[in-house]
Amino acid sequence: MADRPSVLIVGAGIGGLTAAIALRARGIPSRSAAPAPRTSGTALANNTTAVLRALGIRIGLGDAETGSPIVCVNRDNLMATLRDACGDTPIHCGTEAVSVDIGGERPAIRCADGRVLSGDVVIGADGVGSVVPAAFVGQDGSRIPFLSKWGRGAVTFLGDTAHAVEDGYVLATALDKNSDPVVALRLYADVRRKRTRMLVGYARRLSRIEQSDSSVVQSVRNHVVSRAPNRILTMQAKTLRLDLEAPV
Fold first, then answer.
1. pTM to 2 decimal places
2. What is the CATH number of the domain that holds 97?
3. Contacting residues for 140 by C-beta, under 8 A, at least 6 apart
4. Which one of 65, 129, 219, 234 is at 20 to 30 Å from 182 when CA atoms are compared?
5. Which residue, among 155, 113, 106, 166, has the nearest Cα to 130 in the 3D structure?
6. Nearest 5°: phi and psi at 24?
């Protein structure tokens, strides 16, 4: 495609930077506006590290059966790696978005310092409390279990941590395959809504087993895990695996 949309990413965390890297790999220009970074540790599951590896970012040692590891990393180190992979993509750190305007010719964000930034596409990647969902659901999107809308016009958002890494990859692929950004964003939303429901449901079921107060459940759980820990992890990894060849 001759004309590529310019993408403004609100947030430069794990998801926002992954989106920037994936967009750059497809020749789609982007820039990120983000508040000051925070320090913490985080765990990356197989499906997350698989996406990063597809973008040329190798973290941890590969697993013979799943191809990608489950790793715990220092967030600062991970963020530094992702920022390096962004290359010449502009990242405006210390820039906090306070509102989103979707009524103009191009969507735009208003920053806490008074600046207004715009793009052909705006992606909310600023985590819990993001101002982006509020622009089209009319309330704090973080308090709604599953949003019925993932965007409006040329505005959408992505999730946090593991979900967001996949989101960024799929979103970049959708924009790469469709000349109309709005069509691309709705395709992305349809695909990710279904998978996110699956991932959240899987996590909840697993959590109930892991944290059960039932002595019977605890006994069965401990017996199974102690007998075949590697097999269980491999099954889990295959269940969560994203088709990177045809994500949309």
1. 0.81
2. 3.50.50.60
3. 129, 133, 134
4. 129
5. 155
6. -60, -40
Element (H, E) at 168: helix 161-177
3-state helix, strand, coil in the chain (%, to 5): 45, 15, 40
Classify residue 210: in a domain, yes or no. Answer: no
Phi, then psi, of 125 in degrees rounded to 5: -135, 35
61 lies in a domain?
A: yes
- Domain for residue 221, yes or no? no
91 beta partners: 32
The two structure tokens encoding residue 23: 């967009």
Question: Among the listed ranges 8-17, 99-108, 140-149, which one has the minimum average pLDDT value?
Answer: 140-149
Q: What is the pLDDT of residue 62?
A: 54
Count structural domains, the chain. Answer: 1
Structure tokens at 141: 């999107």
Q: Using CA atoms, how far apart are residues 240 and 69, in angstroms rounded to an integer? A: 13
- Owning domain of residue 41: 7-204
Sequence-separated (6 or more) residues with CB below 8 Å from residue 102:
122, 135, 136, 152, 153, 154, 155
